[in-house]
Design a protein that fits this description.
Elements lengths: L1 H24 L19 H44 L3 H27 L4 H6 L6 H10 L2 H31 L6 H17 L12 H19 L5 H21 L6
């Protein structure tokens, strides 16, 4: 029994790490890899029982992932809360409220991320999985902090935004670095381009309320076109073609990820 639990825990930790890596690579760069279900003839009773056992094992597996994820999130949130509490000189009440806000954000993100892994995500889940969107926290802090605390928090938020831009820019540059014949000068130009684009693509500036599939894909297309048109200024024809293939592959993953009947 202990060996079985250890195996489930090891598998769960791997899935959790895979989820973190996918999130790190891009908030949206995940394809729906769930197996297709085709209608089959009536199955023998033994096969049905085996499927039921597999389903039970699957449920146990995902429950363990959720438990591991929640523990990891709480630890990370506590560290962040302690740092902010010291920096902003929060009262005990303010610190508790901040803890609640960050735990709620982390839980929502985790649940959305799990749906991404299991192929059950919607547009809302894709958006909720974005760990860089602190708009709800920033809004709540407006009514929670004193004037002096708020001034320091705004400085902290600016520093956080700089880190977001740097991170997203490095993610964009990973694709550029893979292109054959790319030079350091071209990478530098790409860095300047992606910094400008990512600075303009603030998570809180994108209103996704009641957005349908076509509208969401239109947003994705606009973001990708900005990058293609930008790099075309300093890449040669073959390099642009190579980059476009990367972009097209990304778009296909996103498109496959959202149900056709999403409203």
């Amino acid at each position: 029994m202990n060996q079985k639990k250890n195996l489930i825990t090891q598998q769960s930790e791997k899935a959790l790490n895979d989820s973190n890596q996918l999130s790190k690579a891009s908030r949206l760069s995940i394809a729906n890899t769930g197996p297709e279900k085709n209608p089959l003839p009536e199955k023998p009773e033994v096969e049905d029982k085996n499927e039921k056992k597999d389903e039970e094992k699957g449920n146990e597996f995902w429950e363990t992932i959720m438990a591991l994820g929640e523990n990891k999130q709480k630890a990370e949130v506590s560290v962040e809360v302690d740092k902010l509490a010291e920096r902003l000189t929060l009262t005990a009440n303010q610190k508790n409220k901040l803890q609640e806000l960050l735990e709620a954000k982390s839980k929502t993100q985790s649940e959305a991320g799990l749906k991404l892994l299991t192929g059950k995500a919607t547009i809302a889940d894709l958006i909720a999985s974005d760990e860089d969107n602190y708009s709800s926290i920033d809004n709540a802090m407006q009514g929670l902090l004193s004037e002096n605390q708020l001034a320091e928090y705004e400085t902290y938020a600016e520093e956080r935004e700089i880190k977001r831009i740097e991170k997203k820019t490095e993610e964009d540059l990973d694709g550029i670095r893979e292109i054959t014949g790319i030079t350091e000068d071209q990478i530098d130009q790409a860095r300047d381009l992606f910094i400008e684009i990512n600075a303009s693509e603030k998570p809180e500036s994108m209103d996704m309320t009641n957005v349908n599939r076509d509208q969401f894909m239109g947003f994705i297309d606009d973001a990708l076109d900005k990058r293609i048109n930008g790099v075309a200024e300093f890449l040669d024809v073959e390099q642009v073609s190579s980059y476009r293939k990367q972009v097209d592959g990304f778009r296909k993953m996103i498109s496959a990820f959202i149900p056709d009947n999403e409203n």
